[in-house]
Design a protein that fits this description.
Among the domains are: about 10-70; about 95-105 and about 250-335, Elongation Factor Tu (Ef-tu), domain 3; about 140-215. The protein is rod-shaped and about 195 Å long. Strands 2-11-14-13-12-15 form a six-stranded antiparallel β-barrel. It contains five helices and 16 strands. The chain has about 325 residues and is an alpha+beta fold. α4 (about 145-180) runs antiparallel to α5.
């Protein structure tokens, strides 16, 4: 009986869950309806408000005035940018490679004494500028040359007197030989004596010229325009032929020596003009190739090339570093703007 009573009771679980879902759906539907109604009311209010403002003349006037004031207070406009127009041209350029070198002297010489004697005067110092044939470098005592000159001159006078006498004797012997007073052998002996005296006179006169030249060379002058860079002697020093006195380097022109690689040396030739920059002085000039030495350095495989520069102002100094641009190919055309 208890089992039948239990089976006759209705189930309560499923109906309760179905009721909850219905209430949830009704709540969501009511919320969505309220939201749509609020949006519709807000849209209607905004539309009505805008319509009222646009129909209000005073409102529109005040709004336009405020926009004009804002525009006046804004930043000033920039002026239009300037544009420069250039014509593109085609030019031929020579590809080059920078090389470095140093300035060297065109000529350098050690002036030596040609006579024997003591230095009496030496009016030059290191750095003195000298002029060819005018600047006295050193004066050597010429007393011995003067005495030798006087002795030779006296000997010449004696030979002339003897020659004059023997020449008269020769004329007399010729007259006697015509009258058969003397033999032909005696005439020949006298003629030979006169010839010997003439040869002796010529030799002694040459010795006199030698002594005269030696006296002149006791004054040592500059062999070319240049600068004294080193002194090898001083006043009071005894000199002999070949003794060094001073060392001089030339001025007015100077050379730039560049070591050109073997790959570029074929593009360099005598007479070629190349730009030169003397780096310590920041001087830009030009140099003319005067020599290409055909003897390369084994280690570096470079060839010495000399360029001649004008240095009339004397600003360029031996040893200064220089830079040049050496051609490394044929001319090519490029576009320039």
């Amino acid at each position: 009986m208890e089992s039948r009573q239990e089976s006759s009771r209705p189930a309560e679980g499923p109906p309760r869950r179905s009721s909850s879902r219905r209430w949830l759906v009704l709540l969501l539907a009511a919320s969505l309806t309220a939201l749509l109604a609020g949006a519709a009311i807000a849209g209607w209010w905004l539309s009505a408000n805008h319509a009222r403002q646009f129909s209000d003349a005073e409102f529109l006037k005040s709004r336009l005035e405020s926009l004009g004031a804002d525009a006046d207070e804004g930043p000033a406009q920039r002026p239009p940018a300037l544009v420069r127009v250039s014509e593109a041209t085609r030019r031929a350029i020579l590809p080059t490679k920078p090389l470095y070198g140093r300035l060297v002297e065109v000529r350098k010489v050690t002036v030596s004494s040609e006579v024997t004697g003591k230095i009496l005067d030496m009016p030059v110092e290191e750095g003195t500028l000298v002029v060819e044939g005018e600047t006295l470098l050193a004066s050597v005592d010429e007393v011995w040359s003067r005495l030798a000159f006087q002795q030779t001159d006296a000997e010449i006078a004696a030979i002339k007197a003897e020659l004059e006498h023997e020449s008269r004797e020769l004329e007399r012997f010729r007259q006697l030989a015509e009258g058969d007073t003397i033999t032909k052998s005696e005439l020949d002996d006298q003629d030979s004596l006169v010839r010997q005296l003439q040869a002796r006179l010529t030799k002694t006169q040459a010795m006199l010229e030698e002594e005269r030249e030696r006296r002149a060379r006791s004054k040592i002058y500059a062999p070319f325009d240049g600068t004294v860079v080193e002194k090898h002697a001083e006043v009071g020093q005894m000199l002999s032929p070949g003794s060094p006195v001073v060392e001089i380097v030339s001025r007015g022109s100077i050379d730039a020596e560049i070591r050109v690689p073997e790959s570029l040396v074929d593009w360099v030739y005598v007479g070629l003009e190349l730009p030169i920059v003397v780096e310590p002085l920041r001087i830009e000039t030009e140099g003319r190739v005067v020599s290409v030495i055909p003897y390369g350095m084994t280690a570096s495989r470079t060839f010495p090339v000399r360029l001649r520069l004008d240095d009339q102002k004397g600003r360029l100094k031996v040893g200064m570093s220089v830079q040049t641009l050496v051609p490394k190919g044929e001319q090519i055309e490029e576009i320039f703007v």
